[in-house]
TrEMBL record:
Keywords: Cell membrane, Membrane, Olfaction, Receptor, Sensory transduction, Transducer, Transmembrane, Transmembrane helix. It is a multi-pass membrane protein. Pfam families: 7tm_6. It is found in: Cell membrane. GO terms for biological process: signal transduction. One of its GO terms (cellular component) is plasma membrane. Belongs to the insect chemoreceptor superfamily. Heteromeric odorant receptor channel (TC 1.A.69) family. It comes from Laodelphax striatellus. PANTHER family: ODORANT RECEPTOR, ODORANT RECEPTOR 19A-RELATED. GO terms for molecular function: odorant binding; olfactory receptor activity. This is Odorant receptor. It comes from the Eukaryota. The chain crosses the membrane at residues 34-55, 153-172, 202-222, 301-320, 327-345.
Length: 423
């Protein structure tokens, strides 16, 4: 099972590496034609959504206005995510972080020929525990990735389901051509009408439907790619923190045993310096990893939270005032969005909990009777650990368990605003 998880991870990393090499929008001489096409289509969908909304606003009913708002937020979020996932510089840094070896699993090579001391190198049992933890975290990350991919797939299926249901009802003569709807509001000159959502022929409707489905399938592909980068990077940093905590908790256990024996502990200076050097490198790696995730999540957290808030707000409105088939669609979308938001909130909470655990372990570490340089190094780590950056959105909301509550409160506020506006 462990070997299978590692093989699966290597396969995903190879896929991400190929993505970085092929799909990029900058610099211009290296831009991929497919990326340029998708970027152009995404920008066109945003602009035409606003134009169509403005042209139809006075003649649109409530449901059409809500659908238009949903389409605009969807197109904006997809456009920002496309730019984000095709950032060559950022993706290269993230892949380098994911591919790097775990500092916590490295074994010190002691070549000191001095007398044997009471402080021993990393035990084989501790090393086995670390390797088992790394394998367990890899398996957990792959399972989480599968869950997210399925949730995103169900979300997009729910997004386009109404169009295929309407088309099926039309083919069996239950609905008319005027009842056919697209997943997204779309205006294409000479094919669709700017001021009307009704299609004059089935051929024109199918052309627009195929165009939108192709775009949505592409969106699904790069959305899953974006989540692969994100989940594996979070898993790598979280695993490093857990490995650091295992090492320090083992030191605390040895310290308690030495206190119970009340014997004088003699430390090998060379061995102690090597241990502290690795500990400092490990801690600095964790700090850099959290800092990188905090910077990376600024843009992603902005459009992810923004889109989630608007979708929840629109879903509540549609559940109260929408047609029955629209209600079914938004119930499915609402549940999936809550699951995804809760998942990422818990992912951020895991980082927060492990950092707090790391802070506690450093506070109660074995520092008595240690040299002065050792104590100063510990003070440096504890000081830096108290200033770890939070994964937050401009200090408005933080990626932790409270985030879901903040999103729901914001959605309810927007719902009241739209409700008063509609009245």
């Amino acid at each position: 099972m462990k070997g299978q998880a590692r093989e699966e991870t290597d396969k995903i990393l190879l896929e991400l590496e190929n993505w970085i090499k092929v799909y990029r929008i900058w610099p211009k001489e290296c831009a991929n034609p497919y990326c340029i096409l998708m970027l152009t289509v995404g920008l066109y969908l945003i602009v035409q959504s606003m134009v169509v909304q403005a042209a139809r606003w006075s003649i649109s009913d409530f449901d059409e206005k809500i659908v238009g708002m949903e389409n605009l937020t969807f197109c904006l979020s997809v456009f920002l995510e496309f730019i984000d996932v095709n950032s060559y510089k950022r993706n290269t840094k993230m892949l380098k972080l994911i591919r790097s070896d775990y500092i916590g699993c490295q074994i010190l090579n002691f070549k000191d020929g001095g007398p044997r001391t009471s402080v021993q190198p990393t035990s084989s049992q501790l090393q086995k525990s670390k390797m088992a933890l790394a394998d367990l975290m890899t398996t957990k990350a792959l399972n989480n990735l599968t869950t997210i991919e399925r949730s995103v797939l169900y979300f997009y299926l729910g997004f386009i389901s109404v169009s295929f249901i309407n088309l099926t009802l039309y083919l069996i003569n239950i609905q008319t051509l005027e009842d056919l709807r697209l997943p997204l509001i779309l205006y294409i000159p000479y094919i669709s009408n700017l001021t009307s959502k009704v299609f004059r022929s089935l051929t024109k409707y199918l052309i627009c439907l195929i165009f939108e489905v192709a775009y949505i399938v592409s969106t699904l592909y790069w959305t899953n790619t974006s989540y692969k980068f994100l989940l594996l990077a979070f898993n790598h940093v979280l695993t490093e923190i857990k490995l650091f905590n295992i090492e320090n908790e083992d030191d605390r256990g040895e310290w308690k045993m030495d206190q119970e024996l009340r014997g004088e502990v003699v430390y090998n200076q060379n061995q102690l310096r090597q241990e502290m050097r690795l500990k400092l490198i490990h801690h600095q790696t964790i700090v850099r990893g959290i800092t990188f995730l905090s910077e990376y999540m600024q843009i992603k957290w902005f459009y992810l939270n923004g889109y989630t808030t608007m979708q929840l707000c629109i879903a509540i409105i549609c559940l109260l005032k929408g047609e029955p088939i629209i209600r079914v669609k938004y119930v499915a979308i609402l549940l999936i969005i809550i699951v995804i938001t809760y998942f990422y909130s818990e992912l951020g909470q895991d980082i927060v909990d492990e950092c707090e655990r790391m802070r506690t372990n450093l506070l109660y570490c074995d520092w008595i009777d240690k040299p002065l340089w050792y104590k100063k190094s510990m003070v440096l780590m504890m000081t830096q650990n108290n200033r770890l950056p939070e994964i937050s959105l401009f200090n408005i909301c933080t990626m932790n368990r409270n985030n879901l509550g903040v999103v729901v409160q914001a959605s309810y506020s927007y719902f009241n605003l739209l409700k008063n506006f509609s009245n």
